[in-house]
Amino acid sequence: NYEKALFNHYRALIIYDSIADTLGMARCYNATGEDFLDLKDYYSADEYFHKALDIYTAMGRETETPSIYRNLGSMYKDYKIFETAKQYFRNAIEIDSSNNSLTGLAIDYNYMAETEYDEYRENNHRANIINAKRYCDMAYAKAVELKDSAYLFYAIKNSLPICLDYASFLDSTARQQLLDSCVHIYHVAMTYVKENGYYSSYYMLENCRAKHLLLNHRYTDCLNHLESIRKPNDLIEEEPIIDYDCYIDCYIAMDDYQKALEYKKMKELSESQEYFMETALNSSKSSTKEEYEKMLRQQLKDKKNRELMFNEHKKRVRIINIS
């Protein structure tokens, strides 16, 4: 209950202020910012993160700041302002590197990998997927140094979707080798999930398995696997996560544009965006490749409008860089 957590942190702030515990206030500001971040209130989250950052900076407590930089980076990552997000994560990396914090670096590199991958999925730039793979490898190396199974799982779990997309940029032999290694990654990660009850990652891993089948041109097996994921599972409380993109890509590969368009509309409805809902309800019933491409062009136009909104937001937010 984020609202309850927020209320408790407000109460704690009053107490820390009354006893002049500045360090306690800084930590509480950061925690309050995390509450606002969970509530998607980015304006308030930014305000409280910077309050914490200002206190730590004034106190010379630089070692306390990486967690705040990660929080700020996560906020801009969610907001799809990727360059700003990466700058904050770089700030965290610089401090954690100077302090030789293996734990911090393992987390930082994973965040950078996720951000590069999100940017790749948004813009389809090759440089982003290459960087995502590089940071995944760095995160895994730090997790190995830590000898911590949880950090190893985190690194492996993050690497699977990135490796699947990275494979498309390799020659046929290297591509198949990487795809084969993804099967091993999948089994290692799924074993950890089942042994530790970490079922929040179950659907993500199973969707990666479906994508692996897609990339190996096993389209019928891919669709069957996607359908099996949607069946009720008594071990998992969460609702199944449907990988609409995998459905869409699979049907396009099979030249079934009617089904591809159907899942494209389902994806748009699931994102709960009013514009996309209206598009799905009012669009033509035809199922040609031309209509599918027309919808993609409209989505690109909408993305540009969203970027204009993001740029307006950037003007009012202070960005801290470490010199």
List keywords for this structure.
disordered C terminus; 323 residues; mainly alpha
Give a structural overview.
The chain has 15 helices and no strands. The chain is mainly alpha-helical and 323 residues long. Helix 1 packs antiparallel against helix 2 (22-38), helix 4 (66-78) packs antiparallel against helix 5 (82-98) and helix 7 (126-146) packs antiparallel against helix 8. The chain starts with a helix and ends in an 8-residue tail after the last helix. Mean pLDDT is 83; it is low at 274-286 and 313-323.
What best-fitting shape do the alpha-carbon axes yield? globular
How much is the radius of gyration in Å? 22 Å
Biggest sheet details: none
The termini sit apart by: 38 Å
- Amount of beta strand: under 5%
Q: Order of SSEs, N→C? A: HHHHHHHHHHHHHHH
Number of strands: 0
Percent of residues in helices comes to over 70%
Q: Count the DSSP helices.
A: 15
> Would you tell me the overall average pLDDT?
83
Give a brief rundown of this model:
The chain is an all-alpha fold. Helices cover 78% and strands 0% of the residues. It has helices at residues 2-18, 22-38, 42-59, 66-78, 82-98, 102-123, 126-146, 149-166, 172-196, 202-215, 219-229, 244-253, 257-270, 274-282, 289-315.
